[in-house]
Amino acid sequence: MKIAFTGHYHAQNIALSDFGHYVYIYDVETGSLITSPCPIRYCSINNNKITIKSEKILEKLYPNTEFAKNAQEFTRRIVIKKAYNTLRKYYVPEKDSNYIADHLGYAFLAHYSGEANIENKPYFNESEIGIWGRIVYKLGKHIIDGLWEKPPPDNNNLVICLNKEINSSSEEIYDSKLNLYKF
After folding, report:
1. Which residues of 91-128 are buried (b: 16+ CB within 10 A; e: fewer)?
2. Residues in Cβ contact with 138 at an 8 Å cutoff, skipping those fewer than 6 apart
3. What is the pLDDT of residues 110-128, one digit of tens each?
4. How is the chain split into domains, by residue range?
5. Residue 52's beta-bridge partner residues?
6. pTM for the predicted model, two decimal places
7. What are phi and psi of 66, to 5 degrees?
8. Alpha helices of the chain — where are they, by DSSP H?
């Protein structure tokens, strides 16, 4: 098996695990239709290649309304509330918990959409939080940064070659390291 289709985490994410010696697997995780941005994946297999295309239907549900914006904010607020409550259990002051949780909310939205990019991460000013908040933040900073960082392949649209080894080469527009054709 070279591809596993997964879900439940509500995120658009495609990850490649390369175990060497031509042993690898793609984890194609598809977000949930009940969580912003309500993604759908379309897959087709042709000529030993699987084409994966993604579409976000949130904007199409109620066009020309604030529905999509409100749904995204609703999702962000749920993440913020859970993060805030967790931080408070570690005795992080209220102001610091709000600040950290707000940044985590934006990170999850980017991750859920499959469009995470560390360059879009909002600036986190550690001087805005106290010493205990900074300690807790530094212990969990890898979580926020990890949601913003996205190594290849693309999360939403790509073509994976099913009959080539991951370290093979081709004269086509083919990334042998990732075993995929790019659009």
Report:
1. ebeeebbbbbbbbbbbbbbbbbbbbbeeeebeeeeeee
2. none
3. 999 988 889 999 999 999 9
4. 3-59+153-181, 62-148
5. 43, 158
6. 0.81
7. -90, 10
8. 58-61, 67-89, 94-113, 131-148
